[in-house]
Amino acid sequence: MADLSPTRTGILPHAPHQIFWEQFGDGSRPPVVLLNGLAMHTKAWYPFIGRLAGFDVVLVDYPGQGASSSDDRAVTMPELAGCVRAVIDHLGLPPVHLIGVSYGGFVALEFARLHQARVASMTLSGILLSHETLFEMYEALSLRFYRGGPAVFELYTHYMYEKIFGEAFVRRVGLEALETMRARFHDRYKDRVHSLVRLTEAQDPFFASLDAHRPGYRAITVPTLIVPGAEDRAIPPWQQRKLLELLPHARYEPIDEAGHVVYLEQPDIFWPRVTSFLSSRGYEPATVKGTVAWVLSHQMASVPPAAVTSTKPIDS
C-alpha cells in the first residue's frame, strides 16, 4: 500500500487538540468513517480501503494516536466523538457510515448517541455495552502494564498479541510476522505510553454513565451490523451479543475462526459482509442535499480558519 495516498489530508484544530484526518475520494460517493481501535493509526486501514469500492473513506486519529496531538491530558468518549464530528463538519459530509472496531466501537456508539442525525449506519466489531467483570479486570491489568515502565510495557505487547488474535490467523501468518506486528506497536507507543493510559482511562466515565445513558442508546435507530469474532477472547461473543438488547435495529453476524481483530483476520469474509450491508442502506437524495446544506450553513462557521488542508501524499 506504499503508493496509496489520500485525496485530502490535514490537521484540524479542535481545542485543545490537533486532529489528523485523511479523506479518500472526492465527496461524490457515500462516506464511510473508519474508527480506530485503541492502538491503531490511520495508516493501519490502508490495506483495506480498496475493499470499500463505491464509498469515500475518511480516517481520523484520536488525540494520542498517529499524527494527532499527544498531550498527557484526560480525554472522554464524548470528547473523542466530538473530534470525529469536527472532521465530518469540516468536510461537509452527509450522514456517514460508521465502522468502529474494538475501541472505535465505543467512539461510534457515543457518536450515534450524541449525533444520530449525522449517522447513516453503524458497523461494530469487538465491542460491548454492558457491565462485565472480566472486561473490567482486563482494563485494569492493561493499565498496570502501561504504567509499569518500559520493561513491563514490552511484556504487555507480547501478552496483547497472544490474546487478541484467533488460532487460525496466528497459524496462517506465522510467529515471525506476528512478532513484526508486535514490534511495530511497541515502537510506536514506547515513548508515549501516556496516550494509551489516557485513552483507556476514558472508558471509566463511559461505563460509569452507562446506566444513565441507556435510554440514549436505545434511541439509536440507525441500521447496525454487529460482527464479532467467534473466537474473541478479549470481548467474547456472548458479551457482544448483549448489544442487541439496547440497539433496536441491529443484527448480529459472528464470523468463525476469528478473534478480536476480525477485519484483519478474516478480510475476505468481513469486508464483503460489511459492503453488502452498506449498499443496502441507500441514501435518500433529498436527505443528503438537506444535510449538506445544513452543515454548510450551521456548522462550518465553527471550523477554525487555521485548519490545514493538503493534497500532498504522506508517508506510510
Give the helices and strands as they follow along the chain. Answer: EEEHEHEHEHHHHHHEHEHHHE
Structural class by helix and strand composition: alpha/beta
What is the second-level CATH architecture?
Answer: 3-Layer(aba) Sandwich
Strand order in the largest sheet: 8-7-6-5-3-4-2-1-9
CATH topology, which one? Rossmann fold
The helix content, as a percent range, equals 40-55%
What's the CATH superfamily, by name? Alpha/Beta hydrolase fold, catalytic domain
Shape: globular
List the helices and strands and how they pair.
Layout: E1 8-14, E2 17-24, E3 31-35, H1 46-49, E4 56-60, H2 77-91, E5 96-101, H3 103-115, E6 119-125, H4 133-147, H5 150-163, H6 167-189, H7 193-201, H8 203-208, H9 210-218, E7 224-226, H10 237-241, E8 250-252, H11 262-265, H12 267-279, H13 285-299, E9 308-310
Parallel strand pairs: 3-4, 3-5, 5-6, 6-7, 7-8
Antiparallel strand pairs: 1-2, 1-9, 2-4
Helix pairs in contact: 2-3, 4-5, 4-7, 5-6
